[in-house]
Amino acid sequence: MTNLNRFAGVTVGGLAVLAALAGGAWAAALNTAKIEQLAGAKGTLDESEGVFKVSAPRTDLAVNVAGVKMVPALGLTSWAAFQPAGDQTMVMGDMVLQEDQVVPVMDAALNNGLAVTALHNHFLSDSPKIMFMHIEGMGGEEDLATALGKVFTTIQQTSGGKGHLPSATIDPAGSALDAAAIDGILGTKGTMSGGVYKAVFGRTAKMHGHAIGSAMGVNTWCAFAGTDQRAVVDGDFAMYEPELQPVLKALRKADIAVVAIHNHMTMEEPRVLFLHYWGVGPARTLAAGIKGALNAQAGK
Q1: In the chain, N or C: fewer CB atoms in 10 Å?
Q2: pLDDT tier at 24, thresholds 50, 70, 90
Q3: Is the pTM of this model over 0.85?
């Protein structure tokens, strides 16, 4: 037992030394000062995991959640973490946004080489409403830090109601849409009911070994209301994971806002992500934007 304890002690001590050396190696691998400079945010190094995390507390927000006065430490801090990944660097993070900041901040991320991987809420009964946008990227350390800096700058520039949220005054009861024209653009036959045009595109997956499809909720759909000159479109894209970024970029290219990215199921194969969107404009222009995203989803 004595020998075993002695061996165990040496092993633990050796591991501790290795961990310390590894921490130093990680620190050397990441130019933390350069990351802070380019990102415009201060960070801390987790030596045990070799991760450098920069944070930007949203001290500019006055948020109340169900009577609770929120402070950054309660979950209102934007952050991004950098980690060496072979000969590249990986970044992952979460941006704290007001609703009108989602569109410009998403554009800043996508236009600078970052991927947007989720968009959702973290609270109920929050005022003003706060959304959380998760991002990631793989590449050169300085490129990623520069892209993150542009995201943080956009958050600062759009704070206080300076963002963008597409809106319109439309009552479906007064809709006057050319359904045949929308059919032609989308390449499918939609339905018109109660002033709303709707088209559905089924997808397939498996759950618990059984095939599931459109009727079980695995579908992309779009709904239009308004007139040919001024319409609104909303809906949901059902996407396999590799399709998310192409669909995102296609929708934003068409100036259609993305309002949520999340899962609807668990344990499905392949994994299916869902993206909810909202757009305002001429009906044919919106339909062309949806068609562009459908084409991107299909790899066209």
Answers
A1: N
A2: very low
A3: yes
